[in-house]
Amino acid sequence: MSQAILTDIEGTTTSLSFVHDVLFPYARKHLPAFIREHQHEAEVKALLDDLREQQQRYLNEGQIIDLLIYWVEEDRKDTVLKSLQGLLWRRGYESGDFTGHIYEDAARRLQQWHATGLQLAIFSSGSVAAQKLLFGYSDYGDLTPLFSHYFDTTTGAKREAGAYTRIAETMHQAPADILFLSDVIEELNAARAAGLQTTQLVREGQATGEHPVASTFDAIQVG
Ligand SMILES: CSCCC(=O)C(=O)COP(=O)(O)O
Ligand SMILES: [Mg+2]
């Protein structure tokens, strides 16, 4: 019997197009000015130092901006990029440039599950800060009180079983008591390898047949 639901964001609670047509273009547009203005502030400086260390070479301001924009365009799930995006998007949400897209069925079912006592958590490549912004400024208002935990790639890669084992430990749940929802088969395979239950959301894609399938949150069997 599931005690907890762990959900992906992009392609699961939220449309691919919101991420690719709203968030990523916003990041691309505002990244250069953001880096120029904030590169010497502690939080941003620490991230840029991590980036230089990761690249094993000194990168000047222009090289950093070019590299990050290239990564935005190729949707690189890099922890430094994702952390910077989280900082960047704050301004967009706070100024009302956009709200976080959540499918109506996802918002409604998450609220129902929470009301019945299921523990809810997020696992996304987007940084924890970005996750809290998306649900905090969502189309359905502030949904952050629904979630007990938020996990990003600092916990581990979404396609590796170890991340799901660590998440279950942190949530104080047996892996078998957690239902993981995602649109990406490699993520579902990794979660299943760690012992979690799985359901694939197929809102805009093709089901593979390897996991239970749901086209909306209304079709998810919590058992
Ligand atoms: C929650 S931040 C916006 C989405 C994002 O940047 C991203 O990489 C989404 O990845 P996911 O693991 O949720 O598919
Ligand atoms: Mg996804």
From TrEMBL:
UniProt keyword annotations, A-Z: Amino-acid biosynthesis, Hydrolase, Magnesium, Metal-binding, Methionine biosynthesis
Keyword Amino-acid biosynthesis: yes
GO terms of biological process kind: L-methionine salvage from methylthioadenosine
EC numbers for this chain: 3.1.3.77
Coiled coil: none
Cofactor: Mg(2+)
Protein name (Swiss-Prot/TrEMBL): Enolase-phosphatase E1
UniProt remark on cofactor binding: Binds 1 Mg(2+) ion per subunit.
Family named by the database record: Belongs to the HAD-like hydrolase superfamily. MasA/MtnC family.
Organism: Methylohalomonas lacus
Pathway assignment: Amino-acid biosynthesis; L-methionine biosynthesis via salvage pathway; L-methionine from S-methyl-5-thio-alpha-D-ribose 1-phosphate: step 3/6; Amino-acid biosynthesis; L-methionine biosynthesis via salvage pathway; L-methionine from S-methyl-5-thio-alpha-D-ribose 1-phosphate: step 4/6
HAMAP family xref list: Salvage_MtnC
Protein role: Bifunctional enzyme that catalyzes the enolization of 2,3-diketo-5-methylthiopentyl-1-phosphate (DK-MTP-1-P) into the intermediate 2-hydroxy-3-keto-5-methylthiopentenyl-1-phosphate (HK-MTPenyl-1-P), which is then dephosphorylated to form the acireductone 1,2-dihydroxy-3-keto-5-methylthiopentene (DHK-MTPene).
GO molecular function, one term: acireductone synthase activity
Catalyses which reaction(s): 5-methylsulfanyl-2,3-dioxopentyl phosphate + H2O = 1,2-dihydroxy-5-(methylsulfanyl)pent-1-en-3-one + phosphate
Subunit structure: Monomer.
Pfam families linked to this entry: Hydrolase
Domain of life according to the entry: Bacteria
